[in-house]
Amino acid sequence: xxxxxxxxxxxxxxxxxxxxxxxxxxxxxxxxxxxxxxxxxxxxxxxxxxxxxxxxxxxxxxxxxxxxxxxxxxxxxxxxxxxxxxxxxxxxxxxxxxxxxxxxxxxxxxxxxxxxxxxxxxxxxxxxxxxxxxxxxxxxxxxxxxxxxxxxxxxxxxxxxxxxxxxxxxxxxxxxxxxxxxxxxxxxxxxxxxxxxxxxxxxxxxxxxxxxxxx
Amino acid sequence: xxxxxxxxxxxxxxxxxxxxxxxxxxxxxxxxxxxxxxxxxxxxxxxxxxxxxxxxxxxxxxxxxxxxxxxxxxxxxxxxxxxxxxxxxxxxxxxxxxxxxxxxxxxxxxxxxxxxxxxxxxxxxxxxxxxxxxxxxxxxxxxxxxxxxxxxxxxxxxxxxxxxxxxxxxxxxxxxxxxxxxxxxxxxxxxxxxxxxxxxxxxxxxxxxxxxxxx
DNA sequence: ACCTGAACACCGTTCAAGT
DNA sequence: ACCTGAACACCGTTCAAGT
Lengths: 215, 215
What we know:
homodimer, mainly alpha, Tetracycline Repressor, domain 2, 67% helix, DNA-binding
């Protein structure tokens, strides 16, 4: 079981979600395809378990965070840690927190995040929505990041800079009368940093939360 | 071409993303599978074009919005309209805004959203991040919503209430010492409304934005 | 309890060939 | 310019059979 998950994660890390097939996994394990079905009922379960497997390390990182007297700062640090894990493993973005099942590291992480809101002057309703919002920012940024080509594997040996640059170039061709905003931000878009973008979105949400909590 | 997209959208609306196969689409169009490849180079392009096709209607809805003297209120109304479209078509959540290609309704919608930030006292950098954050909230909420079973198509003819209730029940079994937050919000989770959750997340982001803009 | 080979029912995509 | 049948190389999943 352990080796099934380890090899599954290895495949995902090496070549992303499409690389994880029962046949590829079986070959790495040196067995037949059907064997995997003894450990796992479906591909969905395999993905869920592989995701929760790596979430164990993320949870450890979060637990190792120092913590401060400001619950919102702590919430930010935890979210940044979580997003960092997704930056390192882009395939995670599509699966993590998808089903916060009973037991499992995802639920424990959810609890960790939520516990910070218990230190804020909020209703239970507001606390639930606050954690949903923070998780939403992470997911939203992860999905956005997932659009970009991983590494330099795209047509014509282009880098991420060239990929963004090609979009930017096309945008600059648009009529400024029709697309004033696109022109306003095209230089910002060109070569932008995903982590920067995430942190800004997170900060807006946390600023709103601080206001709501009167903290 | 038009009918290819119309039928593709029909399939997606009827039974979600897995229902859209070249074979199913060809059958509906009364032709062979290979014919579709004359209009579209790949499945990815088919999905992109189908998505942009329905985004046309969303764009019309957004353009029909009255507008006010408060750019942030206008931003909120537009985001709510966008999210409403995703509630009606859950499959949209996985594809919209994925590639804001040159030309296309998604780009026009992106421009519409961004134009509101031009009315705020922000830097170009802040404007870019603000729109990214708002889109991120929509995407994040849409992904979260996509986890839940569509309609009552799940094991044992359960409703959404029963689906959420089953999770809530399991959560209530957890040790309150280990999971104080989960216990705090389990009643909120049970039977929660996705649109409510989205609006709360959006409001936090917009409150942060208002603070930033000093408006 | 654990593993297997072989099949089944699907996929997206290609291609030579037709009109 | 537009469409086709038939094949190719894959998928996830099942199942009877083995140890």
